[in-house]
Structures are given as C-alpha cells and as structure tokens.
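Title: Request for sanity check on Acetyl-CoA synthetase-like protein prediction

Description:
We are preparing a figure and want to confirm that the structure record we downloaded matches what your pipeline produces today. Could someone re-run it with the sequence below and paste the raw structure tokens into this thread? We only need the token string, no images.
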Amino acid sequence: MTSYNNLHFRVVPHIVDEIAKTAPDTKWVEVPRNNDNLEDGYKILTFGQLSQAVSRMARWIEKTIGTSTSRETITFMDRQNDIRYIFAIIASMKTGYKILLASTRNSEEGQRAILQRTNSKKFLHGQGMREEILALQDEKTPIEAFEVPP
C-alpha cells in the first residue's frame, strides 16, 4: 500500500487527486446500495470515483456561478443525506468558495438568519427544492438558486 504521510500539509482536493492519480482503485467509502433497505448491501466507492465526482461538480460550479477569488460563501442543501455533501465540500474548495451546509431541519427564520450572517447569496440545491429555497428570499436575504444535476 502506498504511504501518504507527506500529505498532512496539503489541501483536501489535492490529496484526493493525488491518491486518485497514484492509486485510483483504493477504497474511499462504502455506501448503501439502497438507502431504504440496508439489507441490499453496500457498494465500494474508490478515490478514483471520488475525484471524478468532485471534478464533475467543480466544473458544474465553475460553469454555473464561476469561481471565487474572495472566498465567497455558497450554500448547499439536499433532502438526501448522502455523499453529495462531500462532493460539494471538496468542489467548493476547488473553485475558491467557502461552503455552508444548510439543513432541511432549520426553520425558515433560522435559515434566513444563517444566510444573512454568512452573506451567502448563491444556493446550490438538490432536485425539486427550488421553490422551497426561493421562499427563503426577502429584502434582507437575496438568493440565486441553482439545482445541482444528479
């Protein structure tokens, strides 16, 4: 197995890409095949697959909202609590953004307060959430909503 002890001072996107380049078939995580029935077993995802998914999301972010040179905060929320959150975290780092991981459990008032406090105006979201996201908008909370492709 390859040693990655020299990676401790590097940023996560570079570490993921380095492992994907040198050992793409290395297991990253096991996820349920079916979130509704864990008896269906688990599938292994590799660092190669992680790197591809992150790069795909980073390209989508860059194409959709551009990159940030000022470490602007973007928000991500999805109804699914799955590994897309990890993809969003690493892709936001690759494109220069800070990321706020919003929760569907927050009240509208709480969500607005968090968005205002973090000055986050760009909201990336899962499928079918656009109306819910735009409902958070008011004069103090401008929002641009962008649906992340599946």
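Thanks, this matches our download. The chain has one domain: 5-147.
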